[in-house]
Design goal:
Number of domains: 1
Helix content: 40-55%
Bound molecules: FE2/S2 (inorganic) cluster
Radius of gyration: 22 Å
């Protein structure tokens, strides 16, 4: 039996929707933000430049960790696993794959993408144009279930970002220093960790597969903490998107010499 909106078992309402509010606004705004981010991130990773400020040791999160032999001197903080790349291949390939995979399979972005790009549905009580619904049970959408694995990658990259953040306390004279870039990097770090720890997969990892919490007080405490963050996951998802773009744009501008870093200490 079909359950689509045109099914005979459904109330036959000639109007497309009975909603009279501006239900179309959230999906349009969210879609515009996501489209901007996709265009910005794509342009940025193909730039292959302006991702490192040697004077203050600022490395943009979009290129962290830098693991290609093409990375500019000083920007490799661990080791290289990619050879020197031709200019048209992004050196941030691995970073981008993990971060895009994590965000692209995120439950929040899935909801946002379905509503904004596929109108499936665009809003509650607004019928979708598709005749058939197969959920995420078939290829390619079934691949979205890989989210929990991307979560582990995001945690690893988040730890690397903390290391980058510590290095960013670097002064002109080589000692300790704080600039506006340092603060921007750390605000972004807090938002990124808020986003990562509020992930639904994280909540399941810390509190799932238990018969009762009373025998696992530590996991219960983690689960309570993550659950509180989880209630704000959508906000963390959107705010961290902007903080990543802003951090990257600021470091790009300082690295390219378009602006100078505002220094507070050294
Ligand atoms: S559900 Fe959004 S990051 Fe995991």
């Amino acid at each position: 039996m079909t359950t689509s909106v045109g099914a005979k078992s459904r109330a036959q309402i000639p109007a497309r929707t009975l909603r009279t509010d501006r239900w179309w606004r959230p999906p349009v705004v969210t879609g515009a933000v996501l489209a901007f981010f996709i265009v910005y991130a794509t342009g940025r990773i193909f730039m292959n430049d302006y991702y490192w400020v040697p004077e203050f040791q600022y490395l943009t999160p979009v290129y962290s960790p830098c693991v290609s032999e093409s990375c500019v001197p000083g920007s490799v903080h661990f080791f290289t696993i990619l050879p020197a790349m031709p200019v048209f291949i992004p050196i941030a390939l691995i970073t981008f794959a993990i971060l895009a995979g994590f965000r692209g399979t995120c439950y929040y972005y899935r909801k946002a993408g379905y509503r904004s790009f596929f109108l499936a549905p665009a809003a509650c009580a607004v019928p979708e144009p598709h005749k058939k619904y197969t959920g995420e049970s078939r290829f390619p959408l079934v691949l979205l279930n890989a989210h929990r694995y991307f979560f582990y990658g995001a945690v690893l990259f988040g730890l690397i970002n903390i290391y980058d953040g510590v290095l960013a306390f670097h002064g002109k004279d080589g000692g300790f220093g704080i600039g506006l870039g340092t603060l921007i990097i750390w605000v972004n770090l807090v938002m990124l960790w808020g986003y990562t720890l509020s992930c639904h997969a994280c909540r399941h990892i810390v509190g799932g597969k238990l018969k009762n919490f009373s025998k696992h007080p530590l996991r219960y405490a983690y689960w309570n903490f993550v659950s509180k963050l989880n209630a704000r996951h959508a906000q963390f998802a959107m705010i961290s998107l902007f903080t990543v773009i802003f951090t990257d744009a600021y470091i790009m501008a300082v690295s390219a010499g378009w602006i100078s870093d505002l220094r507070f200490v050294n």
